[in-house]
Write a structure and sequence with these properties.
Blueprint lengths: L9 E3 L2 E3 L4 H5 L32 E3 H6 L2 H17 L2 E5 L5 H15 L3 H4 L11 E5 L13 E8 L11 H26 L6 H5 L7 E8 L11 E4 L5 E6 L5 E5 L2 E4 L7 E5 L1 H6 L9 E3 L7 E8 L11 H7 L10 H9 L8 H5 L2
Parallel strand pairs: 3-4
Antiparallel strand pairs: 1-2, 4-12, 5-6, 6-7, 7-14, 8-13, 9-12, 9-14, 10-11, 10-13
Helix pairs in contact: 3-6, 4-6
């Protein structure tokens, strides 16, 4: 079998060298420790604690948000606003997306990662907004260490794209992307109302009908020394809201009150977090929270994050009505969503948080 490589290449003495996928690295018979290029040093004081009930992410009952009584809806919108303001992360239950569909989506992505490396090569690309792309790590040309993950990213909206292999992926991903977008749309309405705005205010301001939706699957194989590697380092998401599901292996940690908290979601729940564009819109009232993906030495973890953002040509700006009500000056200048995504994917993001480039 040919070496497992991705389209992301590493510059070496003026030449580009192929980088092995983490699936190939972890599957090596001689593999018993983390190679030096994957070594990541964590802060020993930043340890997650999933057992402290004080640090459990809030739960939003989607059924009460969409079909509850008026009093119930008012209450859940207040809870949603509080979750956005105090956590930036919450889990959504009773959302109506069949658990079987969520499992089928994870299984379909797992089958993709299990394809022979030669078959996956046609989807490898360096272009950020190509409809379909897969690879490993993040940007091996500029990063100081490689990530313990492979990825598949497929744009599902405003135009649906899909893979013709593995068998069944296209049908499952179409249904999953539609259902997920319906949930995200209702959450966005609830967030608008939690800010004292009309339900469709943010959707209209951000051209949600043309907004970007990405199905981003991550593959984290078991790691013999999980304390020496990282799946995804601390980061924030670039969009408005992100919905996430995962297989039975957890690994998502959220920074809350200067502590890293391991997120334990209820079976069948979506984990939801707000992104950078929402923080700009709310002028820092709702913050895009730092989070990371840790690895384990037991089994492969697969997660599917579904970021939803504005249309690519839309800049986010602090909402005038909120500024007037709070008596605040805007804290951010505008930048189109496309340019912001490019900023986050480039070397500038290694210097300082992307939101800091837009701060006034």
């Amino acid at each position: 079998m040919a070496p497992a490589v991705t389209s992301l290449t590493e510059a070496s003495n003026g030449h580009e060298t192929e980088v092995a996928s983490i699936k190939r690295v972890a599957g090596s018979a001689a593999f018993s420790s983390v190679p030096s290029e994957y070594t990541y040093t964590k802060n020993p004081n930043e340890q997650g604690d999933a057992n402290d009930p004080e640090h459990s992410i809030p739960t939003i009952d989607f059924a009460l948000l969409t079909s509850g009584s008026p009093d119930q809806r008012v209450k859940v919108i207040e809870e949603l606003g509080r979750a956005c303001e105090e956590w930036g992360f919450f889990q959504v239950t009773n959302h109506g997306v069949p658990e079987s569909l969520m499992k089928s989506m994870i299984d379909a992505c797992h089958r993709f990662f299990d394809l022979p490396e030669e078959e996956k090569k046609e989807f490898q690309t360096k272009k950020l907004l190509d409809p379909i792309r897969c690879g490993t790590s993040a940007n091996v040309a500029i990063e100081k260490f490689r990530l313990w993950r492979d990825f598949l990213k497929v744009i599902a909206h405003p135009e649906f794209n899909s893979l013709y292999k593995p068998a069944g992926y296209s049908e499952v991903s179409l249904e999953f992307s539609k259902k997920t977008r319906e949930v995200a749309t209702e959450i966005l309405k609830g967030i608008s109302e939690s800010l004292g705005l009309e339900a469709d205010y943010i959707a209209k301001a951000m051209n949600w009908d043309r907004g970007l939706q990405i199905l981003a699957a991550n593959y984290y194989p078991a790691c013999p020394q999980p304390d020496k590697a990282i799946g995804l380092p601390p980061h924030t998401d670039h969009g408005l809201v992100t919905l996430l599901i995962q297989n039975e292996m957890g690994g998502l940690e959220v920074k809350h009150k200067d502590q890293w908290v391991l997120v334990n979601a209820a079976p069948g729940a979506f984990i939801v977090n707000i992104g950078d564009q929402m923080q700009i819109l709310t002028n820092d009232k709702y913050k895009s929270i730092w989070h990371r993906a840790v690895v384990n030495n037991k089994a492969t973890r697969i997660s599917i994050a579904v970021p939803h953002g504005p249309s690519l040509d839309t800049p986010a700006l602090p909402i005038p009505e909120l500024l007037k009500r709070e008596g605040q000056a805007p804290k951010y200048v505008g930048m189109t969503y496309e340019k912001f995504m490019e900023l986050q994917a480039g070397p500038a993001a290694y210097v300082k948080p992307c939101l800091d480039y837009l701060r006034i």
